[in-house]
Write a structure and sequence with these properties.
Elements (H helix, E strand, L loop, with lengths): L3 H15 L3 E4 L21 E5 L2 E10 L3 E3 L7 H10 L8 E6 L6 E6 H13 L13 E3 H7 L1 E2 L2 E2 L6 E2 L1 H12 L1
Parallel strand pairs: 3-5
Antiparallel strand pairs: 1-2, 2-3, 4-7, 5-6, 6-8, 9-10
Length: 177
């Protein structure tokens, strides 16, 4: 059975294809299929999207909760470093795509890596801030994502989601381009 996170990745890829957006989904290697002791490279991100002269590397996270933990089991340090490094290049808009699978109303937000890093620093070091939402020392709650992110609109005709990615990428290029 496919995990909800993999369904999110698949739905995003299908949405990009339907909207004529170049999207490369980096596939994870199943460690069970490897020989004992074999090493695999760690993927820097889940997706590379190209839209209107901008490359958008994204790491996707999907949770059935109202916050996403900073714990290494959820967000790896190398993912943060990879997105941060990518964002230093001209024409690159790097970030996380956080999918909150809340029963009554699921929400998805793009969080630019610089905004994520700023929030994480404030949260972990309990620094002064101007956020309206509660700052959680060990996670990024949906309220903060609403403040610092760009919401990805979607529809669910039957059982799977379609995301309006052209709208998202137009907003990204307007805000960060």
């Amino acid at each position: 059975m496919m995990s909800e996170g993999k369904k999110f990745e698949e739905d995003l890829e299908k949405s990009a294809n339907k909207q004529n957006i170049f999207c490369f989904r980096v596939r994870d290697v199943n460690p069970m299929l490897l020989k004992k002791g074999a090493k695999t490279a760690k993927n820097k991100y889940d997706f590379l999207v190209y839209h209107k002269l901008y490359l958008v590397p994204m790491e996707l996270k999907s949770v059935k909760a109202k916050s996403i933990s900073f714990d290494e089991s959820m967000i790896k340090d190398y993912q943060i470093k990879s997105l941060t490094e990518a964002s230093t290049y001209r024409g690159v808009i790097a970030g996380f795509l956080f999918n909150f699978r809340i029963e009554d109303e699921p929400k998805t937000y793009f969080i630019h890596i610089n905004d994520f890093n700023a929030y994480k620093n404030i949260a972990e070091n309990q620094l002064e801030h101007n956020y309206k939402s509660k700052v959680n020392r060990s996670s990024i709650p949906i309220g903060i994502c609403e403040e610092i992110g760009i919401e990805v609109k979607w529809r669910k005709p039957i059982s799977r989601y379609t995301y309006y990615l052209n709208d998202l990428f137009n907003e990204l290029t307007e805000k960060y381009g």
